[in-house]
Amino acid sequence: MSRIGDTFQRLKSNGQKALIVYLTAGDPSLAVTERLLLAVGRAGADIIEIGVPFSDPTADGPTIQRAQVRSLKSGTTLAGILDMIGEVGPRLSTPLVLFGYFNPIMKYGPAGFADRARRAGIDGLLIVDLPFEEAGEIRRHTDPAGIDFINLVSPVSGGRRLGRIVADASGFLYYISVTGVTGARNSLPADLEERISAVRDITDLPVAVGFGIADPETARRVGAVADGVVVGSALVSLIEQHGGDEGRMLEEVESFISSLKGSLTT
After folding, report:
1. 246 assigned to active site
2. CATH number for region 3-265
3. Would you say residue 28 has pLDDT above 80?
4. How many other C-beta atoms are found inside a 10 Å radius of the C-beta of residue 66?
5. Catalytic residue among 46, 60, 148, 254
6. Residue 150 phi, psi dihedral angles, 5° rounding
7. What is the DSSP string of 137-185?
8. What is the mean pLDDT of residues 124-146?
9. Per annotation, catalytic residue among 27, 46, 49, 148
10. Nearest to 91 by CA among 42, 47, 45
11. How high is the pLDDT of residue 57?
């Protein structure tokens, strides 16, 4: 079993839910991202998604788009991200998921990417714009490397295709709570529990919910019906807000992550 699978199993045995957090690598710099990774790990994140910036995102809302622009302006590359993870990884016990779009991986070269990601300590891969039907080009390299390929499920996924997506996934399923792009929201769909239950009926994989979770109370409500919650834009916004004061930023980030984790363990 992978480190991601081990994490969900351990949390389940303790009656807890997974806190999965997203950071855009290189925002505001790779050096700061390294310190942020250590900070969110200390504060209680169970899995960390590391976003690879891309110039033409399709699923990311304004907050993460701005972070990606800042990251690209600072000179962040996929190679640089993998080097940074290779340096910080041994100091982290938290599983790491590389999150992004296929173009940078295609440019890097799927075979070389899979090998470098394995050596850097990447545990999972989520490619937003690569449907599972077209994932063979990368998975024939990442699967043998032991990297979980995490599939997305949305409110419009259904029927035979949903069954195929679920059967093809590993690590966990990322359930997108709403149609649209990432971003903090004031409310989540009333039928969220019903939709998650329908997915759980056809898989034993953990189901984590993302898009729209911005505070401990929302995390608590989602955690009551899912195996994990994903918090991205709210954290990225906090980093943006305090980007000019690294010490304050790290304090605010740790406090925010601790409050989210606390909502999932009480």
Report:
1. no
2. 3.20.20.70
3. yes
4. 16
5. 60
6. -95, 120
7. HHHHHHTTTT-EEPPEE-TT--HHHHHHHHHH--S-EEEESSSS-----
8. 94
9. 49
10. 42
11. 83
60 catalytic? Reply is yes
Rounded to whole angstroms, the Cα distance separating 50 from 70 reads 15
Say how many CA atoms lie within 13 Å of 26 toward its Cβ.
24
User: If we measure between CA atoms, which residue out of 29, 51, 28, 50 comes closest to residue 41?
Assistant: 50
pLDDT in tens, 212-246: 788 999 999 999 999 999 999 999 999 999 988 99
Half-sphere exposure of residue 266: CA atoms within 13 angstroms, side-chain side: 10
CA distance 200 to 19: 19
Domain edges within the chain: 3-265
CA–CA separation, 51 and 3 (whole Å): 19
* Token reading at 220: 């608590």
pLDDT at 193 over 90: no
For every residue of the chain, DSSP letters joined together read --HHHHHHHHHHHTT--EEEEEEETTSS-HHHHHHHHHHHHHHT-SEEEEEPP-SS-SS--HHHHHHHHHHHHTT--HHHHHHHHHHHGGG--S-EEEEE-HHHHHHH-HHHHHHHHHHHT--EEEETT--GGGTHHHHHHHTTTT-EEPPEE-TT--HHHHHHHHHH--S-EEEESSSS-----S---TTHHHHHHHHHTT--S-EEEESS--SHHHHHHHHTTSSEEEE-HHHHHHHHHTTT-HHHHHHHHHHHHHHHHHHHH-
